[in-house]
Design goal:
Strand content: 15-25%
Radius of gyration: 22 Å
Number of domains: 2
Bound molecules: 6-O-phosphono-beta-D-fructofuranose
CATH architecture of the largest domain: 3-Layer(aba) Sandwich
Number of strands: 15
Distance between the termini: 58 Å
Number of helices: 11
Order of helices and strands: EHEHEEEHEHEHEHEHEEEHEHEEHH
Shape: elongated
């Protein structure tokens, strides 16, 4: 057993789920109890559980068997920000700071430090709690892979595998019917899932938010393929992709969510424009939440496990206000403030973009 000043920790999963959350929880519980003799309390449904005191003890026994399982045994939400929490006053709903409840519940459970597993929204809240005196450590989660300060978030690799498998399947039906198949993938304001899956799945066109597209260039590419006697085409569109001189397509607004904007619908716009201009039958598949579900890949299981162990080590070292991160091949740490400062988007002059262009993939410009 290694000595740690902290003997009891809390853990929660916040924001949209991602494959590998359970692997982090398992690694936190196992390494905390085995190495440091710490006990662990799991808060349910993100910061909601911290505000409403919904918590349970987590032991090695109750995290057994969860490594390959998608989702999170703790539940999650992208609402319930303790600094902007909806409270009913008479007829009205007003948003208040209820962070005192968080500190109260932390103290009720005798918790000395909290591990927050989340994306930019949850980690920004974690950082705010840290600045108010809570001992917090973060773990970077999101299928979007858009957190700066880490080379990769867990969940991305699984989402990528799902999108790539979808492209493989779309290829065969596209070929049979001589169609243009458009796959709309998630990723919010970053094109990582689209770019990686497009490369892995052999797409002919990849449209990402970082490179606003010219639809005429896309149409030219589809026509050029016809001239080369290619009977079908595959287009991957990130949900955040937008035409030059145009806007992202907002599907709906979710009031009370960390980021209320929900993107979606650009795949339809691209397919319609292509069909109209080329006369080629075009179909759209919106992959949606399939990208967030299912069993994590081996890579994500390992990365998530390393993050869980890394976070516990940070707690034991008293290294608070930090996020475990991947730098090259190593797990390191960065200040939470740095981690949530800006989104990590695809560099438009990066190597992968050059690779795509060199292969003749159309990026819309
Ligand atoms: O951030 C993860 C993510 O899946 C995005 O890719 C997507 O835009 C969003 O969450 C969808 O959120 P929700 O599950 O609330 O619809």
């Amino acid at each position: 057993m290694v000595k740690s000043a902290v003997k009891r920790i809390g853990v929660l999963t916040g924001g949209g789920d991602a494959p590998g959350l359970n692997a982090v929880i398992r690694a936190v519980v196992k390494s905390a109890s085995r190495v440091y003799n710490m006990s662990v309390v799991g808060f349910e449904n993100g910061f909601g559980g911290l505000i409403k005191n919904q918590a349970r003890e987590l032991t090695e026994a109750n995290v057994g068997g969860i490594l390959p399982i998608g989702g999170t045994i703790l539940g999650t939400t992208n609402r319930d920000n303790p600094f902007h929490y909806p409270v009913t006053r008479g007829e009205e709903i007003i948003y208040s700071d209820v962070s005192d409840r968080v500190f109260e519940n932390i103290s009720i459970h005798g918790i000395e430090a909290l591990i927050v597993i989340g994306g930019d929204g949850s980690l920004a809240i974690a950082n705010e709690l840290y600045s108010q005196g809570l001992k917090v450590v973060g773990v970077p989660k999101t299928i979007d892979n858009d957190l700066s300060a880490t080379d990769q978030t867990f969940g991305f690799d699984t989402a990528l595998a799902t999108a790539t498998e979808a492209l493989d399947k779309l290829h065969t039906t596209a070929e049979s019917h001589h169609r243009v198949m458009v796959l709309e993938v998630m990723g919010r304001y970053a094109g990582w899932i689209a770019l990686y899956s497009g490369l892995a799945g052999g797409a002919d066109v990849i449209l990402i938010p970082e490179i606003p597209y010219d639809i005429d260039v896309v149409i030219e590419k589809i026509n050029a393929r016809s001239k080369e006697k290619k009977k079908f085409s595959i287009i991957v569109v990130a949900e955040g992709a937008k035409p030059k001189d145009g806007e992202m397509v907002v599907k709906k607004m979710v009031e009370g969510s960390f980021d209320p904007i929900r993107l979606g619908g650009i795949g339809d716009a691209v397919a319609q424009a292509v069909e109209l201009a080329t006369g080629k039958e075009s179909r759209v598949t919106v992959l949606g939440h399939l990208q967030r579900g299912g069993s994590p890949t081996a890579f994500d299981r390992i990365l998530a496990t390393r993050y869980g162990v890394g976070a516990v080590n940070l707690v034991a070292e008293g290294n608070f206000g930090k996020m475990a991160c991947l730098k090259g091949l190593n797990i390191e740490s960065v200040p939470l403030a740095e981690a949530v400062g800006e989104l990590r988007t695809v560099p438009t002059d990066g190597e992968l973009i050059k690779v795509a262009r060199q292969l003749g993939i159309c990026l819309g410009t």
